[in-house]
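Hi F.,

I've been meaning to write this up properly since the lab meeting, where we talked about keeping a consistent format for the predictions we share between groups. The idea is simple: the sequence comes first, exactly as it goes in, then the structure tokens exactly as they come out, then a line or two of notes. No screenshots and no reformatting. I'm using this chain as the first example so we have something concrete to point to.
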Amino acid sequence: MTGRPGPALGDHSVLLSDEDEHRRARRLLMPAFTGAALRGYQEMVTTLTRAEVERWPQGQVIGAHRRMQALTLEVILQVVFGVTGEDRLTEMRPLVRGVADIGPVTLLGLPYPVLRRVGPWRGRACLQRRLDALLHAEIADRRRAGDLGRRTRGGPGASAQG
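Output, unedited:
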């Protein structure tokens, strides 16, 4: 691909990469989408969904959009990122929410790195750096864990070995 892939999805997004880089990224991601892995995710998503629904007040109208966003956030953190530690989850929730909650003006300004020094782009860049640091810390913790050799590629909460 020519030019910079795109600040909204990252410099190495599978969605925006081509040829050899795309094939390499797909090979690394494919184990996470096997039937066995998806069945494991189903159980985790069901558990998270039940926990979310149990928090809803009975007999009251709720904002479904807000509640579905909260559920999606938990799925991203626990199923996609594999984060299970409550301290790290607590720290990451507002960061993921802030990075994902992007308005049209901010989105239009993302291709211009100079804007990352001002206004909403500066705030988003700070959130992204903090989230990246926590994700890298999670990866480092996983790599130091004693069960690394016994984990399966692509299983729920497993790191992508390789």
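Notes:
The longest helix spans residues 119-144.
The chain is about 60% helix and 0% strand.

If this format works for you, I'll send the rest the same way.

G.
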